[in-house]
Amino acid sequence: MSHRNIAVSQRLADVRYEIRGELARRARELEAQGRKLIKLNIGNPGAFGFRAPEHLQAAIAGHLATSDPYCHQQGLEEARLAVARQHGRRGALGVGPQRVFIGNGVSELIDLSLRALLNPGDEVLLPSPDYPLWSAAAILNGGTPVYYDCLPEHGFLPDPEQIEAQITPRTRALVLINPNNPSGASYPAALLRALVDIAARHRLLLMADEIYDGILYDEASFQPLAPLAGAHPCLSFGGLSKVHRACGYRVGWAVLSGEPERSAEYQHALDLLGALRLCANVPGQWAVPAALEGPDTISALTAPGGRLYETRRAVLEACARSPFLSLVPPAAALYAFPGVDLDLLPDFDDHRFALDLLETEGVLIVPGSSFNVPYRHHFRVTLLPEPEAMREVFHRIDRALARWTPAARSRHVA
Questions:
Q1: pTM attached to this predicted model
Q2: Is pLDDT of 344 > 60?
């Protein structure tokens, strides 16, 4: 009897997620051999000693007795009301609990929102660098990612003219990741207004991934997109995982704003897809009102003296000292995206370097090309470790980079 291997979907051929991919698998193999690693590939606060605030924990504990049944497919009413109130305070138009969708993290909602929107061959405008889940979700739902540049020499901010020039009759949505992962850029209001105008002229759905909205450094500010979009349809994403350090709760939300008539069919499609998966995790949703209407617990961490601020400072200082690295200072979010000087290291390749760094120095980073950029001389690290640990990380990175100089590599060959 002959046996056939099970074939997989052809759509997976173009899907990448190196944040938890080949390098992470190799890291697990090394750990199984007894190696001690410093893993900087995932923005997972709980893995670095952070805890969700106590008032979130108490909100869940106090409602466990009522958390056994399914809830409404869009989420608990109490949670949706809290999200709607937050967006109302920000000035978003047309937001009520019926236009809020709670999901098992923002990741699930990105997938559902693109599934509700795309037909085969439709295009989605995505930033480069992007968070690769956006590209993957577009491809897996039959769409085509079209990337607009956010170049380091421009502070990782996009060019509205380039974006508009890439629009075709198949373009359905303009995606913004603000504050940005991986670059840490925070978009100014004037730029966002220009992007809203483009979306309005071409009738594109605005999709704003704002999961890092409260993680800001120095004088940086966050401008939500929905208030600037006004009556134009905008879908804004947020959640508990980053600002509230509660990744494992798996609670995110998507908020549809603008004139309801313009997006009524899309709203019904989101509701249908939400119903097909029954509902999101119920216990974690009880933390949403506590998170959005309780005390601010993130600002102390991002202010001078705070854990995140001081680790970021350690990264800035390390890159300034390094003969090989440059860095656009991250204004927001949980990452830094350093670049390597190709004049000094002309043979540098981000993926080969990441593997070399893991094998020789015990440090796991994410190659920059994993974020859908056309260049291969950047890498991403998370800012979650203690400052002293981060100083050690960059000492190891510089030591590894020194082995990539032409002189060092020629000695190795000889």
A1: 0.93
A2: yes
